[in-house]
Amino acid sequence: MHILVIEDEPSIREFVRQGLEELDFQVTVCADGKLGYQLASQESYDLIILDLMLPVMDGMAILRQLRGEGHSTPVLILSARHSVDERVLGLQSGADDYLVKPFAFAELAARCQTLLRRQSAASGTDVLSYQGLTLDLLSREARRDGVLIALKPREFSLLKLLMTQPGRVLSKTVILEQVWGFQFDPQTNVVDVLVCRLRAKIDKGYATPLLHTIRGVGYVLRHQG
């Protein structure tokens, strides 16, 4: 699952990023409120962790703008503002949870898991399925015909992207933006390498491949029986 962290304090931002990545989450971070808003409004995330005191555009403005535009991505406010009135204001403005700094990472992780479970239950999409291939978004387990497939974090993110849009050809640019966010070098062959790894895991040993390359266009999850 992909989490956006909008936090301008470098030590906190890095602390949260490292902790979440150790739990196998894909994490995109930014320190600027305006950029954070652009990412949150234009890209797809499963959860947003939002500081309030940000440069250029403050967190409360980001939250209100997103909710006003109809974005329903869960938002967890992470802030040093600790008064009851400030916490209530954050929740009333559209936040799903509010955690006061300083905080223990274990509590942050638990709150993230709770919000993600709640979101998955509400959407009814906690398990994706296509032609005998299943992906559990909560346990992060993939299986084909019941056989467990061990996936690394980016392999999981790519498979999720493909399984939410079976039959649609996804370009390298789309995959780079959705799987790597803004943290990639577009001149590298990282997409080809990742697709190759994922194909070896979900198709090797099966008579009917599911992951196909459309030369010069991109990649698609498609059953061609």
Automatic annotation (TrEMBL):
Domain OmpR/PhoB-type: from-to ranges: 125-223
Annotated Response regulatory domain residues: 2-116
Presence of keyword Transferase: no
CDD domains: REC_OmpR_CusR-like (cd19935), trans_reg_C (cd00383)
Annotated DNA-binding residue span(s): 125-223
SMART domains (alphabetical): REC (SM00448), Trans_reg_C (SM00862)
Modified residues (4-aspartylphosphate): 51
UniProtKB keywords: DNA-binding, Phosphoprotein, Transcription, Transcription regulation, Two-component regulatory system
Protein's name in the database: Response regulator transcription factor
Organism this protein belongs to: Photobacterium arenosum
